[in-house]
Each structure stands twice: as structure tokens, then as C-alpha cells.
Amino acid sequence: MYKIFINDKPFVLSSLNDDTSEFEGIERIHFDSENLINLIKAGEEMKFKGLILLCIDVEKALVEFKKHFISIEASGGIVLNNEKKLLLIKRFGKWDLPKGKIDLGESNEEAALREVEEECGVSQLSIVKEYSTTFHTYKNQGHRFFKITYWYLMNCKYTEKLVPQLEESITEAIWQDLNTFDLKETDSYWSIKDLLKNIVNLKK
Fold first, then answer.
1. Would you say 118 and 87 are in contact if contact means Cβ atoms under 8 Å apart?
2. Which of 47, 87, 125, 148 is the most exposed place for a label (fewest CB within 10 A)?
3. How confident is the model at residue 45 (pLDDT cuts 50, 70, 90)?
């Protein structure tokens, strides 16, 4: 199963056997490559709250989906400090996680560490493990982009003041106590909440 977010709405490529119960109330239709671009356009125009496409071959369906986009890759961090507080940034008025495009010659891990350092002004980072990969799309200057983001769980020993990277439209960077973190009520993106749903259980 692949969860692709279009305008922060789930566009799910699912086999007939996948558990899609988390998407209760979202329409299910059979995958049709000839009609795919029309469904993508409908998602871009916010004409549905999500869509589950039932696929005979999910991997082949993903290849067909990506044909309509320019693919780009990014890396980011889900960062916890020694007090089990989560590093969050506020960008464009919503709470988000530090991430960014992978530079030429960079590994996914190197890019993730660099982006966290640059966007939050931290150091003393270490990668604990590879955590997840997410997919979302956006349009820019008439082109469609398919963004693949590789996420790494990180530990941070840095205890000084956080410095948000203002030139990247980041206005805040905070350590969020997981004991008081209400993920459902947090003004964030569906894709980010989906990524963090298991992290919020890592309390002291």
C-alpha cells in the first residue's frame, strides 16, 4: 500500500488485501490507468477528501502514477532529545518537521542531518534508524512534482536555544513535550500526523 498525499488528502494505492480501515468514509474505486490523470486533477482541485484505488499490482500502479509527475527526493528528521521531547517547526502557519531536498552527491542520511541542523539551528545529532518514506505531490509553475521524503528517527543532545531558519519561511522551532502533545488538535498536515502517530506514544 502506498499513501500519496495530494493537497494533504490521501490518494491510496491499495491491494485488495490491504487494511484500509484508517480511511473510513473515503471512496474506493478500481485503479484505471487511462482515467488516472483525471483523478489526479480532481484531487488538485480539492474535489474529494481522499481516494482509495484498488490495484491488482500496487507496484505497477505506482509506476503509472509517477509518469504524470517530475520526481524529486528529500530527507528529514523526526528528532527527539534526551528528555523525549519532539522537535517541531512552524512553516506557513502549520506545525511541521524539518526536511529538505537532497543535494547532488549527498546521501539520504547526510541530507536529513543537514536539513535539521539548518532549519532549527541545532547540532549534536545522530541517526537512530531509518523510520519511514512518505509521498506527496504539488504543482509549481505549471509542472507536477512527486516528492519522495526519506525520514530518519534521530537523537539530539543539543541543549542551547533553537534558531528557526527564517529564509525558509520557518517562524518557530520548539521542543514539544510528548506528555502534553495532542496530535489530533495540532494544526498540522494529515501526512505529518500520519507519520507521527506512533511517535507520540514514546513518552517518558
1. no
2. 47
3. confident
Q: Which three cell numbers stand for residue 77?
A: 528528521
pLDDT band at 61 (very low <50, low <70, confident <90, very high): very high
Q: What is the mean pLDDT of residues 188-198?
A: 92
Percentage of the chain lying above the pLDDT 90 cut: 80
The residue assigned the cell 481522499 is 50
Contact present, 120 and 163 (Cβ < 8 Å): yes
Number of domains in the chain: 2
Q: Which residue has the cell 495532542?
A: 182
Listed residue (12, 35, 7) closest to 25, CA to CA: 12
How many of the other CB atoms lie within 10 Å of CB of 177? 13
**Is the domain of 87 the same as that of 174?**
yes
**52 DSSP β-pair partners:** 12, 28
Domain that holds residue 106: 74-201
pLDDT tens digits for range 10-29: 999 999 888 888 888 899 99
d(CA 177, CA 175): 6
Separation of alpha carbons 130 and 124, rounded Å:
18
**8-state DSSP, 102:** P
- For 19-33, give one letter per residue: b (16+ CB within 10 A) or e: ebeebeebeeeebee
Same domain, 152 and 180: yes
pLDDT at residue 63 tops 90: yes
Q: State the CATH number of the domain containing residue 188.
A: 3.90.79.10
